[in-house]
Amino acid sequence: MINERVTFPGAHGDELSARLSLPPDGDVVACALFAHCFTCSKDLKPVVNISRALTQQRIAVLRFDFTGLGESEGDFADTTFTSNVEDLEAAAAYMAREVEAPSILIGHSLGGAAVLQAARRIESARAVATIGAPFDPKHVKHLFSGSLEEIESRGEAEVVLAGRRFRVGRAFVEDLAEHRMEETIRELGRPLLIFHSPVDRVVGVENAQRVYEAARHPKSFVSLDRADHLLLDEADSHYVGVVLAAWAGRYLDTSPDAEIEAEEAPEGRLTTRTGAGAFRTEVVARGHALLVDEPRSVGGEELGPTPYDLLLAALGACTSMTLRMYADRKGWPLEEAVVRLEHSKIHREDEERLEEEEDARLDRIDREIELIGPLDREEREQLVEIASRCPVHRTLDTGVRISTREEPGSSR
């Protein structure tokens, strides 16, 4: 995905730091606004993973640091839950001005409670999703319960949360009790998706039950099994992102212009994007997105097929499509064409010997074709012969001339 560093003024004038995550080819069909968990930041790895899954479905994501957190300006001690909600409104307004108003609101932990509160004030929001969210914002008071007396007497106190020090003010504590969440959830007026782990030790799963009971349909609950509150296992955040993207698509109108643009894209035009520190590569072809990766044995994360898997997939798909087309033209009873392929490399020590042969190759693809249907022997023989005439086979067989040029990029 493309990550752009942006800033915008928060509800009370502080400059808030944000990342605008865009699809790999920059083609956006909808936007989402992400509210991170209490005392977390926009750059928490699970937030990044969820954003990546959404951008794979051409949904842009704005994730920002609340006032006084992460890279944003301001003093956290001066903030309240209400000011966090107001920061969300400011973020939505920024998106409407600079990109597109958010259609999806996503909140993690206390950020989930915040998006529930903000949804009715953000008219563009068509759907809301929460992850490990408390039913009541004042639930977070237990995180600094040992300092409540000092906060009450001195007006603020320094507390340690997740190994980091924060100054929490009396206004923050008092404001937590002011919000009537049950009524807010009941009157949400948007589809709601609730993610929660049954073993969440920070925000118990009973909170998800209360949110679900208060909400009206359409509402959905997804159990995160053994996930921790912060979704630190990459598989958990990846799962949330994939499910969230699929669910959100039900409530989004794909832009007709975006569809036309995908249909009119140059034949064969494809974009890949590989970030730093991993082999994970995003691919967009005519508006269709997928992930490509490498096995863990070579440093990958196994999040998708390898480049050679895609090479075999191209040949296999082209082969079976060609067989289908030919059989239909002839009126032959081919019910299914199944193609199985395997790629192998000829060892380096064999290279010198192979160069003496006319059709020497260092790569080998074994193709097995299964023709299902009441075909006679002659029909089967002709179909197997036709397989070698598929366009991708011919391309691989005759060779490809590759021309490479550098396009000046931008630094983000």
Description:
By secondary structure, the protein is an alpha/beta fold. The chain folds into three domains: 2-257, Rossmann fold (3-Layer(aba) Sandwich), CATH 3.40.50; 265-298, no CATH class; 307-398, K homology (KH) domain (GMP Synthetase, Chain A, domain 3). Helix content is 33%, strand content 23%. It is built from 13 helices and 15 strands. Strand 1 (2-9) and strand 2 form a beta hairpin. The model is unreliable at 255-265 (pLDDT under 50).
Strand percentage lies at: 15-25%
CATH superfamily grouping of the largest domain: Alpha/Beta hydrolase fold, catalytic domain
The proportion of residues forming helix, as a percent range, comes to 25-40%
Looking at the structure, the CATH topology of the largest domain is Rossmann fold
Shape: elongated
- SS class: alpha/beta
Main features:
GMP Synthetase, Chain A, domain 3, 412 residues, eight-stranded mixed beta sheet, three-stranded antiparallel beta sheet, 3 domains
